Amino acid sequence: MSSSQEQYFREEVPHNDFLWSHTRHEVFQSCLRRYYYAYYLAWGGWLDSAPAAVRELYILKRLFTRQDWVATHVSMAIAHLLRSGTRPMTPGLLAAEAGGIEARQIENMREEFLHSRSGAFRADPVHMVGLFEHVFEVPVTAADWKQTVDRLALAIRTFAGSTLAQDLFALPKERLIFIDRPLTSILNGFKVRAHPSLLILDHGQMHLYLWEAHPEVALTSLRERLAIHACLADTRNRTAVNPVTDPDLPVLATAYSPLFDESYTLEFTPTDIGNTREFIVNSADEMLFPLAKPEENDPGDGAAFEPSPSPGCAACPFHRVCPAAEKS
Ligand code: SF4
After folding, report:
1. Of all protein residues, whose CA lies closest to atom 7 belonging to ligand 1?
2. In the chain, which end has fewer C-beta atoms inside a 10 angstrom radius, N or C?
């Protein structure tokens, strides 16, 4: 860390409070140096006063690959659909509503694409989207870009025509406890966040959903994510939804692929929820080890955050600034 960066972190930025998430856990497990760039050195890069190096790391941290980009838009589109409309909804009305949302979402994607390609997003990286492929000049054909956007159309149409959508629209709206909202809780003193796509109350049972619009998904990571979402949903909502919910009933968690109209559902019993809580707390504890002052979430000079060069470095947004990248 340069002396101007040290002064900046000491005097100008808001305090960097520790916030555990599954993404943070995965980055920590994959490469400590990447973790250090993303969660410490990029901190405060949104401020106008940020040194150029911090700003650049912040921009890199927030880049989307085109797969993540379309998955985010799919989630937003389904959230818009669920928030809108009367209930019960006929299949015809649902298709018409989805068509309007699809057109607006594609227009948003078109604007984001242009701002990313021109580099205009750099002026406001908090609100504007930068795409990994543009920043690193990854060759992507026009047909591939079209296929990316077509995936949004396919996903929203498939969801709107699915049995799942019919079931969700048949529920009274108040059973949809929340739609596309982050959940935050404190577990053993650690602040923890997860972001399920939907949480409903179904026959007295909590059921959360995750829209998974990536064509290929790592199953282990998906299982972990569902468990963490279930744990947070349980911790945050168990009391709020009592007495409707039987505390002994498991929390249901479904990953739904709107690309393939396929669901993957797991049940999490109170014992499973307890185990997941332990997993989160152990992971958060582990993240404190490399810190110079764990109680202040202060990483010190970063020397303890060793790089782990691997073939995965090519997909790391920090490979341009990481000295270890060329050894991978
Ligand atoms: S380029 Fe590789 S070694 Fe460097 S931070 Fe990224 S993943 Fe880690």
Report:
1. 313
2. C
207, β-bridge pairs: 200, 252
> Structurally, how many domains does the chain consist of?
3
Apex CA 216: angle with CA 137 and CA 325, to 5°?
A: 40
Do you find a cis peptide bond into 88, omega within 30 degrees of 0?
yes
Residue 255 host element (H or E): strand 251-257
Question: Quick one: 70 and 34 in the same domain?
Answer: no
Residues 74 and 147 in one domain: yes
Domain shared by 91 and 158, yes or no: yes
Domain containing residue 279: 174-284
Which residue's structure tokens are 């299982």? Answer: 223
Q: Are residues 254 and 183 in the same domain?
A: yes
Rounded CA-CA distance 6/48 in Å is 17
Query: With contact defined as beta carbons under 8 Å apart, do 277 and 229 qualify?
Result: no
CB-based contact 290:305 (threshold 8 Å): yes
Q: pLDDT tens digits for 99-115?
A: 999 999 999 999 999 99
One domain for residues 70 and 129: yes
CA of 322 to the centre of ligand 1 (A): 6
Look up tokens 């068509």; give the residue.
99
Angle at 103 between CA 214 and CA 195, to 5 degrees: 40
Candidates 313, 321, 328: which one to mutate for ligand 1, based on the most atoms within 8 Å of Cβ?
Answer: 313
Tell me, yes or no, whether 92 and 146 share the same domain: yes
Q: How many other CB atoms are found less than 10 A from the CB of residue 1?
A: 17
What is the value of pTM for the model shown? Answer: 0.92
The pLDDT tens digits of the residues spanning 5-52 come to 666 666 678 899 999 999 999 999 999 999 999 999 999 999 988 999
- What's the 158 CA to ligand 1 centre distance in angstroms? 37
Closest CA to 278 of 190, 219, 155, 180: 190
Q: How far apart are CA 247 and CA 119, in angstroms?
A: 51
Residues 6+ apart with CB under 8 A from 65: 131, 132, 133, 315
